């Protein structure tokens, strides 16, 4: 089976990289196509094919003419020259995509973001390959609900897809709020991670003199750090000794303002993005992870935290309740509710060590069973096979 | 007096503060020059000079630098003074070359005052006024003091050393600046924004606030500092009390902020109640304002807030968070109402309480608000204050 991953860029996410490596190990052929030229971190045995860079005009011309000479002489070459004279970048990129799809001959084109479906307009319902879309991220769970024009575009393409991959049960049916139900394979495949490589912290949590809390994630409004910061303000008012670290929160003006405004400079520290190993190290040593987001598929940082033995207090956003059952594998609070988050942190502090240990063990078991890499690859192979038979 | 005003870009027609300031200074016999970053926009009220453009292409940048430096030869005395001042401050040779380039337009000027419209505009230009024999004045806006500084600690240390006079749009910002290292011995003055009553009179204002729904309005950019999430949560509380209302928000934001608030409204099921109208002209804004019953400001901080002042000028009942300088803008329980910052449920309670007041009480507040704006925030007063700012 030859699978093309269409991400728009060669810089694919960690989740896609793990999927690609898994597919290669399974003996599948994988290509990645995107609108860039340079790939600083390629995965071995993967073919990276540029569709013409958006950054460099010179490289764009070189790639376009190269593709036309290799696969489309003479017609495509003359067409490419014409588009270049006209300065019609988009038409040329479309031609590049056409040449690539015809010559790489994939069985499945796995599209990572809904906006990329526009490029595949001429190929829906073609006889040569199937088109699958991954449902994840803001293009699925936010933009369609605030932009009528985007919802219309989605509805136009969803009915012509061959299959859907959904990162959670919640997101798998989300589209039904704006589009009528479509009868195509729609498989929930949880993101997989190498759980066995993550050593679980066996020491008893919440025994540090000062409660150490942590959040991990880029600074973006969906992460709703203000709610966590306000919860910290309540903790401070109650005289609780704590420290909260937001990895990835440094430089965010809103977060900085709130910390300053609420007088929490000595209680909250922010860092810029740090290497994955350092993130694991910090999460491993924290007492509890906070996930205050207003929207998520299923947050990988929570999966990793649970694997590392650090329990998670999460909001009930997106698919998080598929990962955490309240009081079983962690704790769930409503979104945008700093008071509820504050109360849950205090409840956590009042639990005895044995109760917390039970939660961390069940959390580890849950991610081992639901988020292991082998399961993700197997499930994705199953989706591809189902779609090809469909 | 020759006054050079430095801004990031020419003020648009709706930016009344700088436009009325320039008009007022000219009317009082001062000569005003506006200096902004390189732009295609023109300016109609006074001479407009631009800073040299900074190019990404190194060859283009080098050529531009050559041209600019040749143009500076005739001003060697000032440039030489600037070099000496910067050398004293320990500026490296490379940085000095860059600074001469970005300040070339200012170094050519003859002026009594260089007034930086925002504190951030003065960064890397602090010694220029002294080099050309002018005095340095600076104005604060909320962002300079409340936000920029958090990311750039000590960014104003050189400005504090070189500033001759400070203008603040509120006592709140001035006090904050003192806390942040501005010496209290530096001459400073608070000159509040003003209201253009002639413009208000020209607009066809509606006094028809009737309708089945209770009407609320907020004028604010869609930006986190304006507390739009709190606005939506306040609306949620109102809805939970079965109040039939419509809350319009005038102002635009970048894509991220617009999506953020549209999504919050969607999730809170408030699409019928909270309406994001986007950017409207000043006249359209005033028309909307005239139709509203209560004006609300949920900002987490404000340097002063013209919108609240304008709402009071129109006699609207104003409710605002007690944040930043809003307590100087609204006299609590006299010309409007203040509610504790960051507490949407308390703001919702206050809105309900104000709604339920008698018409007589509401009218009293409204009249006091109009009177105070007329008495204390007129363009004439502002023009006089600014004229005196440079001469006393």
UniProtKB/TrEMBL annotation, chain A:
Gene3D superfamilies named among the record's database cross-references: Glycogen Phosphorylase B
A Pfam family assignment: Glycos_transf_1
Residue ranges crossing the lipid bilayer per the database entry: none
Listed CDD domains: GT4_PimA-like
Domain Glycosyl transferase family: 202-365
Domain of life: Bacteria
Protein name: Glycosyl transferase family 1 domain-containing protein
Lineage: Bacteria, Pseudomonadati, Bacteroidota, Flavobacteriia, Flavobacteriales
UniProtKB/TrEMBL annotation, chain B:
Segments forming a coiled coil: none
Annotated Glycosyl transferase family domain residues: 211-369
Cited CDD domains: GT4_PimA-like
Gene3D superfamilies: Glycogen Phosphorylase B
Listed Pfam families: Glycos_transf_1
InterPro entries assigned: Glyco_trans_1
SUPFAM superfamilies referenced in this protein's UniProt entry, alphabetically: UDP-Glycosyltransferase/glycogen phosphorylase (SSF53756)
Domain of life: Bacteria
Protein name: Colanic acid biosynthesis glycosyltransferase WcaL
Organism encoding this protein: Psychroflexus lacisalsi
């Amino acid at each position: 089976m030859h699978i093309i991953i269409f991400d728009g860029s060669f810089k694919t996410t960690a989740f896609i990289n793990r999927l690609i490596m898994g597919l290669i190990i399974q003996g599948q052929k994988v290509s990645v196509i995107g609108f860039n030229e340079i790939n600083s971190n390629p995965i071995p045995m993967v073919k990276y094919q540029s569709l013409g860079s958006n950054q460099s005009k010179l490289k764009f011309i070189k790639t376009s003419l190269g593709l036309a000479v290799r696969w489309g002489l003479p017609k495509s070459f003359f067409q490419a020259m014409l588009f270049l004279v006209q300065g019609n970048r988009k038409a040329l990129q479309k031609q590049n995509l056409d040449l690539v799809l015809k010559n790489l001959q994939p069985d499945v084109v796995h599209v990572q973001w809904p906006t990329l479906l526009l490029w595949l307009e001429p190929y829906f319902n073609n006889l040569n390959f199937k088109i699958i879309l991954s449902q994840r991220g803001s293009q699925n769970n936010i933009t369609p609900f605030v932009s009528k024009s985007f919802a219309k575009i989605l509805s136009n393409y969803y009915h012509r897809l061959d299959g859907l991959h959904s990162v959670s049960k919640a997101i798998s049916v989300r589209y039904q709020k704006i589009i009528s139900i479509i009868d195509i394979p729609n498989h929930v495949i949880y993101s997989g991670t190498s759980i066995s490589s993550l050593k679980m912290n066996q020491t008893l949590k919440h025994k540090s003199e000062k409660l150490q809390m942590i959040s991990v994630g880029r600074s973006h409004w969906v992460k709703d750090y203000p709610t966590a910061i306000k919860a910290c303000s309540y903790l401070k008012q109650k005289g609780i000794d704590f420290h909260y670290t937001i990895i990835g929160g440094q430089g965010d003006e809103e977060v900085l303002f709130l910390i300053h405004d609420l007088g929490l400079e000595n209680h909250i520290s922010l860092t810029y993005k740090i290497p994955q190993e350092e993130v694991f190290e910090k999460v491993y040593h924290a007492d509890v992870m906070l996930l205050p987001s207003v929207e998520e598929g299923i947050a990988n940082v929570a999966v990793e935290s649970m694997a590392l033995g650090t329990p998670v207090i999460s909001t009930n956003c997106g698919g998080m309740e598929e990962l955490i059952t309240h009081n079983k594998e962690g704790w769930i609070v409503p979104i945008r509710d700093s008071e509820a988050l504050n109360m849950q942190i205090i409840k956590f502090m009042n639990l005895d060590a044995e109760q917390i240990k039970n939660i961390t063990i069940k959390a580890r078991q849950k991610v081992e069973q639901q988020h292991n890499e082998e399961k993700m690859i197997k499930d994705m192979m199953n989706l591809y096979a189902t779609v090809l038979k469909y | 007096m020759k006054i050079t005003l430095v801004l990031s870009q020419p003020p648009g027609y709706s930016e009344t503060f700088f436009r009325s300031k320039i008009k007022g200074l000219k009317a009082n016999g001062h000569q005003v020059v506006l200096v902004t970053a390189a732009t295609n926009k023109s300016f109609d009220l006074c001479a407009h000079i631009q800073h040299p453009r900074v190019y990404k292409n190194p060859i283009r940048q080098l050529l531009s630098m050559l041209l600019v430096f040749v143009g500076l030869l005739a001003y060697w005395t000032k440039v030489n003074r600037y070099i000496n001042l910067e050398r004293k401050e320990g500026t490296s040779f490379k940085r000095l070359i860059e600074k001469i380039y970005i300040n070339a337009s200012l170094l050519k000027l003859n002026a009594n005052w260089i007034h930086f419209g925002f504190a951030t505009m003065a960064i890397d230009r602090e010694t220029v006024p002294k080099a050309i024999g002018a005095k340095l004045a600076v104005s604060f806006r909320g962002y300079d003091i409340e936000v920029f500084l958090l990311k750039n600690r000590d960014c104003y240390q050189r400005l504090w050393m070189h500033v001759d006079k400070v203008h603040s749009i509120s006592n709140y910002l001035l006090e904050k600046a003192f806390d942040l290292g501005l010496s209290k011995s530096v001459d400073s003055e608070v000159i509040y924004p003003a209201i253009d009553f002639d413009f208000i009179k020209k607009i066809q204002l509606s006094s028809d606030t009737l309708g089945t729904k209770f009407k609320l309005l907020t004028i604010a950019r869609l930006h986190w500092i304006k507390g739009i999430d709190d606005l939506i949560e306040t609306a949620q509380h109102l809805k939970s009390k079965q109040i039939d209302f419509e809350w319009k928000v005038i102002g635009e934001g970048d894509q991220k902020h617009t999506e953020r608030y549209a999504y919050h409204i969607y999730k809170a099921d408030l699409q019928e109640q909270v309406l994001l109208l986007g950017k409207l002209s000043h006249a359209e804004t005033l028309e909307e304002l005239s139709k509203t019953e209560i004006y609300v400001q949920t900002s987490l901080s404000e340097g002063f807030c013209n919108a609240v002042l304008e709402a009071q000028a129109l006699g609207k009942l104003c409710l605002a968070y007690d944040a930043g300088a809003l307590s100087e803008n609204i006299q609590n329980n006299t010309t409007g109402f203040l509610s504790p910052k960051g507490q949407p449920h308390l703001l919702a309670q206050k809105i309900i309480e104000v709604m339920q007041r008698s018409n007589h009480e509401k009218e009293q507040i409204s009249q006091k608000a109009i009177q105070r704006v007329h008495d204390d925030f007129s363009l004439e007063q502002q023009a006089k204050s600014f004229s005196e700012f440079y001469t006393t």
